Structure formats: C-alpha cells, structure tokens
Amino acid sequence: MRYFSLSATRVNTERLLTHNMLQCHVKNCRPNESFPLTIKDPELERTEAEFNPDFMRGLVPKLDWTALRKTAGALGLGDLPAEMPEATDEFLQMLHALVLETRVVSGSMVCDVCHHVFPITNGIPNMLLQADEV
Amino acid sequence: MIARVSDQFPWGPVRIRIESWRCCRLTDPARFEQDHVHHVYDAIAEHFSDTRYKGWPVVEDYIAALPIGSIVGDIGCGNGKYMGPYDHLAFLGCDRSGALMRIAHERGHDVQIADGLCLPYRSCVLDHALSIAVIHHFATPERRRAALAEIARVLRPGGTALVFAWALEQVSRKRAFAVQDNLVTWKTTARQSRKAANDRTASTYERFYHMFVQGELQALAAEVPALDVIRDGYDRDNWWVVVRRRA
Ligand SMILES: [Zn+2]
C-alpha cells in the first residue's frame, strides 16, 4: 500500500508548521527563552492543502502549542485557548488551516533575546549566521 | 593529500595548486568548503538540478516506510527531489546553497537556507531525517562527525536518519579514485547553461568530496554518542547507514 500521492501543484512555502520548528541558533543565545521567533512585517498567504485527519492527529503532539498560540495571536489569526483542545475533527481542520495552509511569503523572524534578524525572502527563510555568531 | 581528478589539465600547474588546497582544507576548512562546495553549488545549481531527478531506491523505500504524521527533515536537500510532496508526511528541507533553495522553493517545497553544522531547528523536533550525498562535502573528519551530531540533536529520541555518502569503492565508474580526498570537476557546456541567457560560455568547477571507505561511515556515526547504527549498506557507489537516536 502507498500512503502518499504525488501532486505537482502543491505549494509549501514557509508554513506556520515550519515556524513552529525553527529557533534562534546564534552562539550563546538562549533558544528556550527566545522561542518562538517573532514574525515581523509578514506578508501572509493562504493556500489550500488537502485535509488529512490521520496526518493531523499524528502532527498534533509535535507542535509547541504555547508558541503556536503566541504566533497566531501576534499575526491576528485568532485567539487560541491556553490549553490545546481535544482532537475533534473541527479542531483538526482549524489546525490544518493554521499550520499547513497559512504561509509567510516575506518578512523576517526576529530573536527576542539576541535580536538577530532572519529574513524571509520569496518564501525562503535565510537561517545562515555570520562566522562570529556560530 | 588532495588528488585532483581531471582529464583536462596537465599535471604541472596542478601540483602547485594541490599544496595550497591541502593547507587551506586543514587550516581553514570553513573557507575551503565555501570555495569548493558552496560557491560551486550556487554556480551550477540549475544544471545540477536538471541532472537530479531520479531518486535512489534505498532512499525512496526508506521514505515510503515512514509512518503517517512524521516530521521529516531533508538536511542538505538540494533541489528537493526527495521531498514529495507527500500527503502523510510533513517535509522540511534545508541546504547551504541559496540558489538550490530557490529551485526547491519553485518546485513547491518548504525549505530554509541553513548550515548543516548549525541547524536552525529545535532539538528533538524531527521524527526522521535524510542526509543524502551531503556529509562527504565536509572537509575534515571532525566536521563530518559534527554534521551527524547536529542531525542527532534535532532528531527525537528513537527517531532515525538515513545517511548516504560517496564511496571510494566505485563499481559503476570507469575511473577509480586513488585517494579519499578529491576535487571532482563539474563541467557545464555552453549548451547546458542555456537557461542563463547571458552565459554562453562553458565552465569547469571543482567540488570537494571525501570518499568513504568500507566501514568508515558506520564508524563515524558510532562516534556520535547519541546515535546507534541500525542498518547499513552499499548502493550505487555510495555507503549508507540508518542511524537511530538513543532514547
Ligand atoms: Zn537569539
């Protein structure tokens, strides 16, 4: 059995899911305090992706809910409850739209501790550091 | 010592340059990789990508067996040829080459420009990872081990990674490599650079490769305290291992 299907039209520009995985990695920065990176001047885009409840159920425990809630609030995408709700289909669909369909096309991600700026250009975050930051 | 693999140049001028490469590789490996890996990939990205469309069966089988809902990181993803898209996996990809990331992004992949020795991901965040034809580009054993240790950091306990690296023992090539550290030429002809309208010239680039001997990749992975080697093999001129992060 093949779980997957291929489609050529899917767009996977920096999703909020990815933002939830990224952290500041500047030497001697405190990633636990600076996570999540603050998204500045974002240009957001919503692209439809196929909803797969089993996939979402697998994904849920891997999200950092507190960070996602903070980011969604800061981007004006809605107020999430402080505790992650039960994984009903309705909740999973909301989460699907938030983390898989919402994308950052441009802007930057800023570390609140060391103030490093990671630019996002044409949907691609540049996470490279200068030699003295590694 | 670095041998140069080329049928294009006489040996005279080459020998002089071998010395300067050797010094630079060991005294300033980061600079060496910039010259002989990063800049090359940025320059040849389009032509390289055009030649990279056919996946290797070992890699495709590994991906096909990953459970639904897995977060998978392709570390050094190139043009993103292994990234699907898949309905049941969340694939992230990163690569040091901005030019390759633009190509991967145009193909619809969620990618970041990042350094394999300093990944931008949270610790323990990936369920699985790929490192396909990447660590052989690091200039020293310490840096190759550090690249594996960084993958181990971002893997969750119990998570696995598939690592491929070029083998010294090559069965399908006409030309044998005499030593492990090599500069391998990449030639673009005027015809191949057709997409760059202003570039009608043929160019030659040299990429650094450390070619692994039998057992070396397993030994390197075993040096990373968090990793166990759970499978290994040889396929298409490459040694490969599947490593698992200890619980
Ligand atoms: Zn920071």
TrEMBL record, chain A:
Transmembrane segments annotated in the record for this chain: none
Pfam families: Trm112p
GO process terms (BP): rRNA (guanine-N7)-methylation; tRNA methylation
UniProt-recorded Gene Ontology molecular function terms: protein heterodimerization activity
PANTHER family found in the cross-reference section: MULTIFUNCTIONAL METHYLTRANSFERASE SUBUNIT TRM112-LIKE PROTEIN, UPF0315 PROTEIN-RELATED
Family: Belongs to the TRM112 family.
Protein name per its UniProtKB record: Trm112p-domain-containing protein
Automatic annotation (TrEMBL), chain B:
GO CC annotation terms, alphabetical: cytoplasm; nucleus
Domain Methyltransferase type, chain residue ranges per copy: 74-162
DNA-binding recorded as keyword: no
Superkingdom per UniProt: Eukaryota
Entry's Gene Ontology molecular function annotations: S-adenosylmethionine-dependent methyltransferase activity; tRNA (5-carboxymethyluridine(34)-5-O)-methyltransferase activity; tRNA binding
Keywords from the named record: Methyltransferase, Transferase
A Pfam match: Methyltransf_11
Statement: the UniProt record of this protein carries the keyword Endoplasmic reticulum: no
GO biological process, alphabetically ordered: tRNA methylation; tRNA wobble uridine modification
InterPro entries, per database record: AlkB_tRNA_MeTrf/Diox, Methyltransf_11, SAM-dependent_MTases_sf
Gene3D superfamilies assigned: Vaccinia Virus protein VP39
Annotated protein name in UniProt: Methyltransferase type 11 domain-containing protein
UniProt organism field: Caulochytrium protostelioides
